[in-house]
Design goal:
Chain B: It comes from Eremomyces bilateralis CBS 781.70. Chain B: Keywords: Cell cycle, Cell division, Metal-binding, Mitosis, Nucleus, Ubl conjugation pathway, Zinc, Zinc-finger. The structure holds two protein chains of two kinds. Chain A is mainly α. Among the domains of chain A are: 139 residues, no CATH class; 99 residues, no CATH class; 194 residues, 2-Layer Sandwich (Ribosomal Protein S5, domain 2); 72 residues, Arc Repressor Mutant, subunit A. The longest helix of chain A has 32 residues. Chain A is elongated, with a radius of gyration of 49 Å. By secondary structure, chain B is an alpha+beta fold. In chain B, 11% of the residues lie in helices and 26% in strands. In chain B, strands 2-3 form a two-stranded antiparallel ribbon. In chain B, a hairpin with a 5-residue loop joins strand 2 and strand 3. Classes of the chains: A mainly alpha, B alpha+beta. The interface between A and B is large, with 64 and 29 residues. Strand 1 of chain A pairs parallel with strand 1 of chain B, so a sheet runs across the interface. The complex binds zinc ion (ZN) (3 copies). One zinc ion binds next to loops of chain B.
Amino acid sequence: MAALHESPLSRESLIFSSVFSLSAATHTTPTPLSTPDLGSIEPGQSFGGVFGSNQPSQQQSAAQRQVRRNLAWSSATRFLGQFALEDAMKGRPTELRGMPSDVRDAMEFLLMGGGCPLPESNEESLVDWYTNEALRRFVVDISPELTTKWRADFDEHSTWHILIYTTSKLVQAHRHLAQPLKDILLPIISRPSRRADDAIEALTTLPIISRFNRELRAAFVQAVDAGRFAEYLEHLLVDTGRKLFSIEGRGNENGEGPELSREEKQKIRERLTTLLRGIGSIGLGGDKSTWVVGAAMAKLLDNFVDSRHMKVDWYTRNSVVRTLKHWVKEGYMRYFQEIMACLEVESESGPQPSSIPPASLQRCQEIAINRLGRARVADLFDFIVRWDGSLGAIRDLKEYITLPGARVHLTHSFSRQLSRRLLHAGATTSDILDVYVYIIKAFNELDPKGVLLDRVARPIRRYLKDRDDTARIIVVSLLKDVDEIIADEKTGRLDIGGNVSKQIALEMKYPSAHALQEQDYDLDWGNMDWTPDPIDAEPEYKRSKSSDVIASLLTLYDREDFITELKDILGEYLLKYEDSDFEKEQRLVELFKVRLGEDKMQACEVMLHDVLESKRINRDINASINRENVRLGSELNAQILSSYFWPPLREDAFRVPQPVHALQQRYAAGFEGIKDMRRLQWYPALGQVEVELQLQDREWRGDCHPWQASVVYAFDESISSISGLENDPGRSTTPSRTVEELKIMLQMDEQLVCNALQFWTAHRVLVEVSPGIYEVQETLPADGGSSGDKAGGSGKSASRTAPPLHTETGAHVSAVKSQEDRLMENVDIYRHFIVGMLTNQGAMPVAKILMMLKMTMPGGFPFGMEEVRTLLGRLVEERKVVGQGDIYSVSKG
Amino acid sequence: MKVTIKRWNAVAAWRWDMPEDDVCGICRNPYDSTCSKCKYPGDQCPLLMGDCNHSFHMHCIYAWVQQEASQERCPMCRQGM
Ligand SMILES: [Zn+2]
Ligand SMILES: [Zn+2]
Ligand SMILES: [Zn+2]
């Protein structure tokens, strides 16, 4: 008692009113015994007589009632005020029982009798007084401690602690503060015998309790920093969910231990439900916490989708959507229900229904699928380029794209990824084509109707059309044997891979199964997979066009453009690989006939027919030539072309070796004998020659170009006299020849002469004895000679494999001149790029420079290491670049 | 050094022994091409020269001659074939 009266009331009131808006206009502390206006009634006298028996008359009214009220007020507040919260909180028993009867009478008078506040007066009700008193007590005794705790900084790990501490403090405070209300005041209010049943009691008391709780809750919220409380609660809900569902930590894997045992999970769960029930019971589980729970659940869902549970299935390549839906139903939703059930204890509407409405389950699963779908879409490009290992990821998207807005999101997002990561100068055309093939296949799986593919393919197709080498690479890839590409990859011959799309070659060899079932898919009534066209299908939309890989590629251009390209490349192939039976080429021509129309393919068919027919003609003519002259050591075969149908060919003319010339004349005569009214015209630079060179210490045998054969033949020991050119008599068996002499002698362009000289020098057959003068290297010097050539040069190389790269170094001349021309055309760009790169990035090996050129040059860099070395060599000469071994850097001087 | 050419794979083109750039008077295709019905030139679509020295794809002139209006005359010079 004494302690109570010592409280510095003015200060308390100040704190109190600074924090709360008081529910009553004024609040008085319990009236002390010495209050002067007590009237005639002695302290301790029962109010019972006054109140119970004789009702005061109207005349007595005001003044007397006021006296009584003051007296009763003093008695009641004094009694209620002695309830010492602090003691109660410390576990000391409170002295609520044994309420003196006069106090009871005073309370009845104030609550139910004439002491009730008069209408339109400023009189305070006892309940209001007690409510304010409880608030005051809370603010004075409990709040400061909590406020201090919440002002302190604490890390995530003390979240549990602070929440449990706070909640239990508040639960205790609430219980003790509410106790006098419930135990003393409410029984008086609801006691009168006229109460008919519990329902009426509830009607009278419930509003009082809830108003009291509301007031108290406002004080609680103020004390604990509601914002942070919500934040911590959210964190706790997420964290507990992660533990219960074994969602590993993101970014701090080492912070999270191994998966918890069943018992540990049960413990955590119980701890959480206890806490939440506490929160619910003190009324903090209202609207605000619903919002907090919502935020936590959203985060938990995100966490789950990003967790190992929802990793792409790279092994069995199945969708994880089924797992996700199961988790939402059996894990996520149950967790959510449990949380809400705990928080809603206050409503006391009994146990929550345990079944989730199907509609909200479905909605929730859709949200989850949407979240997963967006995660997959964000990485879609990576999945596409890893097709078909990524089949599982694509399957994960199948249900997603049935959700509203998903298809648009997918196409937009993927188009952005494409333009950022693929459709730029750094990607080679064959890379883009490879990815395009992946896209066609993956999107066929995703959306068999092809509408999405149609959308995302448009920018790729537009981009591919703008690249010069697209048609060429497509046709080359269709012709190329995929096994050869794979072999090249293994041996690291990237030069070839750069100009060929492996995926197209694969598709040619192993066509996608669906391409065959394409026709009249929709009309197949027995087809159980039939689904209606998607709503975003445009009216003129035709699925079959884009889903077939080969068809997609062939429709990139006008048919005519493609056929022109095909003619050029096919021509080159047919002339290059003359020993082949051209099975693949025939298959390709058949394929193009089906796709592009038979009428357009006449030229290609004639070309194929020519090379096959030539074999027969060769047999016939050679049979007759050999019959008349068997002693010729060499054999002449010819490809007889129907020139009208072939692409323009190299027409470089030069003199072929005399015996060959004689053979050609005989051959032509033979041909014209069989084929009436027809003439033959030779293309000296085309074809291939197998030569055998007998040198003093070795023999060289191998294939070469006709001009190379002609040049080496000019060094034959029998030629020096025939040529009529003067030679040093002492060196008659090893004639020396200048470039000029060879040009005149062979009527050959300087470019071809030089190429041949370099070829033979590289093979160590010829040697440049002084600038521009060449001789036969009859014997290899003993010192430092590479033993490789001694074994017989390149030997009999298979006709399909090109000679080793270094043998044609620096003087690469193909049947098509444009390659070298292109290097020269763009030489300034390349040089500029190389100098810029070396300036910015420091020294680099040739291989790296080549790779960067290939990645960065618009239209690719269709050259190899040698061309890069040539470019670097010139830069070194100009002192712009210095080389050390294979590493080049910018010249500092 | 002794050079032996073991094998020489050459490339040649055939043409009809006709003035270059001349076309069949009926189908207007070059002689080195085919008539409008054939796929392969040469043996499968030969040329035929009339007494008047005008030449046509064989299939072209056959088709022409079979028309009654042609009266079996050369479409170029109206001489009898
Ligand atoms: Zn004709
Ligand atoms: Zn014909
Ligand atoms: Zn005529």
